[in-house]
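WARN retry 2 of 3 for item q-0093 after timeout on previous attempt; input resubmitted unchanged.
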Amino acid sequence: MTWIGRKKIAFVPLSRPNAHPPDLIPSDWETDILRRVLYDPDPTTGKDKSLRAFIHTASSGIADLDAVVTERHSVDQQDVPANILEGEMGARLRSEGCDAAAIVMLGGPGAGTNSGFWSRFVMLEPVGTWAMELMHGLTGFTDIYPFGDDVDQQDPVMGLYDEMSSAGATHPSAYTKVGIEWLDRAAIAEHTGRTSTYALHAISLTQPPPTGRVAAVKIGTDVPYMMVEARLMADQFDARIPKEGVIVYVVQTPDPLGHRVNHLRPLILKTPQALSVGQAFVSDNGIGISIPGSIPGGFLVVVDDRNAPFETGQLLSYGDAGTPGNVSAPVTVGFGGWQDFKILFSGTNVAGENRIYAVDQNGQLLSYGDAGTPGNVSSPMVVGFGGWLQFKFLFSGRNVAGENRIYAVDQNGQLLSYGDAGTPGNVSDPMVVGFGGWQDFKLLFSGRNAAGENRIYAVDQNGQLLSYGDAGTTGNVSDPIIVGFGGWQDFKFLFSGRNIAGENRIYAVDQNGQLLSYGDSGTPGNVSDPVVVGFGGWLQFSFLFSGRNVAGEDRIYAVVV
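OK item q-0093 returned
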């Protein structure tokens, strides 16, 4: 049975002549019951907190009720079963079109229960108890609060984030709303792949969600699976939730109506404190949930399944702790399309802003900012309007004076130096800092040696690693120092950057796919022995370079093939 449409419910006032403590019968009991059911304005806010208002609101208008109050009854019994009047009036109520009946009593709280067609609760109990018992009878959904024989009592239940867990007259979760058919299953996104962004429409708002939004995200196909939804104090009912934000919970039962399996709690809440913007959660099995921003009526959420393979064209960001194998798990800062660029590198513009530079198919030079959170690389600015495909090498660095520059080698083998002012099309006219021969190098990039000196590194035809200084004036690149004596041409990737400890490093990927980290002391042949900071798999990338995100964190960037 489902609670869809209007259900006729009979409310039966029942007193006990010898109750302990005595039942105090109201003078207008029937009117008091109808007030609780049909219209019960809060004395402070004036908002209707009646049973009918709750059911209509929580179901987004799918469910409704028609209430009748019957004649009073009396039973001389302290503990009155919910179905005690079945023999006396059950058949009559059904013949009159009633879908459910509820005995309304006068004792203390804690009386709420259900027995199919019949429910029982007392006047002193809140509307959440009345709703829960009737929902049991009309939907078949069970209790999902704690039981004494739960085998996982260490795991928190949903509490006020689900009516069927707390009887608190708060909205049911997306899981529960789907189970009782107050929410279409299609309104819940099923996450696939590695990383995606979703716009969550708060579950307390009218469902289904508007175009472009989802009511929740389901992660995983088999039990247990994870659910993510947004909660706002959007009405008089969800005003009682502990905190607004995004909640993450795990469903441990295959039953859509919440029944336990193997004495496991059906739903366990993984975020007792709902996540706010800027916060994140990572599950024990490597599912990352982060909240990059809010939207009217909800939140943006990024789901990162770290067990899934990366997708072609994603831009990944790693941190290097500086010790063997300790490169961090990546953050997917760009969701796709990065493989289409001809050239990709990072640097700093004249204003000191950390940027990722890319040359597109039209030869434009684009500039992006990386906020450091999943998918949050900014929209690009076109800082160079065309012609950037002509260069054999293109990279960024600093000259000896510490000025941030973009370096390029033109068709004549000259080394050019540009400044990026950070506004559209405003890359400066180039300065020729090296007069010729720069096209002959195998690799060319810039960085800093261990002493903090800004250098331009080059690998010559003999596989030597050379180090130059750019004085910042025409033709004034210094004579090179041979800091590495040979074998540098064998690397697929070669670039410089800084690890998390702030040490200046030269990174290389060897033939085994290991990521190596070297230090350059600045004297001939004195590049250190490498540290293997990444144990394998680094050959899979189409681009690999280092830089800093907007927050100034040193990162290694990679684009998945």
